[in-house]
Amino acid sequence: MTKFSDLGLAEILLRALDREGYETPTSIQAQAIPYLMQGRDLLGIAQTGTGKTAAFALPILERLAAEPRRPAPFTARALVLAPTRELAAQIADSFRAYGQFMRPSVGVIVGGVSHRPQNDMLARGLDVLVATPGRLLDHIASGRMRLASTEVLVLDEADHMLDLGFIVPIRQIVAKLPKKRQTLLFSATMPKEIAGLAQDMLNNPAQVSVTPVATTAERVDQHVFFVDGGAKRDLLIELMNDADISRAIVFTRTKRGADRVAQHLDAAGVGAEAIHGNKSQSQRIRALDSFRKGRTRVLVATDIAARGIDVDGVSHVVNYELPETPEAYVHRIGRTARAGASGRAISLCENGERPLLRQIEKLTRQSLPVTDRRSADQRHDDAQPARRVPRGGAPKAHAHAGARNASKHPRREGHHSDGHHPAGPRPARPGNGQKRRAFGGGNRAPQG
Ligand code: AMP
Hints:
Elements: H1 11-20, H2 27-37, E1 42-45, H3 52-66, E2 76-81, H4 85-98, E3 106-109, H5 115-124, E4 126-131, H6 133-141, E5 152-155, H7 158-163, H8 167-176, E6 182-187, H9 192-201, E7 206-209, E8 211-212, H10 214-219, E9 220-226, H11 232-240, E10 248-251, H12 255-267, E11 272-275, H13 281-292, E12 298-301, H14 303-306, E13 316-319, H15 326-333, E14 343-349, H16 354-364, E15 370-372, H17 376-381, H18 403-408, H19 433-437, E16 440-441
Parallel strand pairs: 1-6, 1-7, 2-4, 2-5, 3-4, 5-6, 9-14, 9-15, 10-12, 10-13, 11-12, 13-14
Antiparallel strand pairs: 8-16
Helix pairs in contact: 2-3, 3-4, 6-8, 15-16
This protein binds adenosine monophosphate (AMP).
């Protein structure tokens, strides 16, 4: 698995990522950053929620750190074009967050606000300018912005720009840029106008794409139990005694863990089988077959073994251990809620796994409802304790609030907030419903 430190990023950026709580690059980051660090142009098929902002912001900041230079007045070293004011502001915030130890000058130019402060800002020159096309063209026309020395151009959400009628303004802006530059274009879809724009703008681009897995996760009701590591097994049995769980997949991180959990469930009278890479093909087929036919209620699987599972009617996914990457979480919970059905996902999270939980919440932009089952000692150890649902008020596995509601009230009672999460999971971005809440990963979660 790629680590941020494998990508060759400067220490000053790695430190910021650490501060932001990012542990592993998302798929688009792992794919795109190496090309961008070589100076290649890039065509990225990815939508918001995949981590694409960091995928382009980090290499740009890396360039600024490697060749620090004061930008001349009325110029910007990197230009990012975005379709909306909100997105422009978020992108600028991301640059500031990832650049927090190098303090690049980052400015935003959008319409609907007065020109004066923007004029003053442009007069100072910028490392990074994030702009919507219309207002930027105004500034270019009045001579307050010159693009002849801009080194990098990013076009974000190009298909959304097309919907908003920005293709002509974009072409006008691109005409002002030097021929020798690095150009990146991101789009969730590739209508022919965007393909044409890419063809004209990009020079031998590397192509990367991540397929969204969003809609699955939006249909899944998700819940987290904070629990002591040693108490996970008993909690699992307790949960499995819920008659609502008709067919469940329990995920573990290791093969040995899968065997142990399956044995423990079996011993407690819950029919379970493990599948993982150490099992023979015939054992796997047999286990899957009895799961599919309902003879075994619980399948215990590792992430890799689960890739081949194609079973409808999985009512619950249980994360006995949280996965190392947040995207794996999305793939796991996508095993339920298939073919338009709803499903439930329960995660058992011990103290040491809370950074993993934070990553999942960041990536999916949800704050998951939590029940705290940890011992008093463990809670006491917690420097800044999570808000708790009182024991008596603990939701049953089948009666919890869905994550959809949770994302609308990210900080309401019962949601965890541990004080180490500087920005907190952002609530869904406004407007444009599903697309805005979408997130994705490298492989498509099966959707039935
Ligand atoms: P984006 O698609 O760029 O809008 O990013 C979606 C969300 O994922 C944002 O809240 C980011 O802060 C977060 N994010 C991006 N990359 C990572 C990562 N490697 N680990 C954890 N969270 C991330």
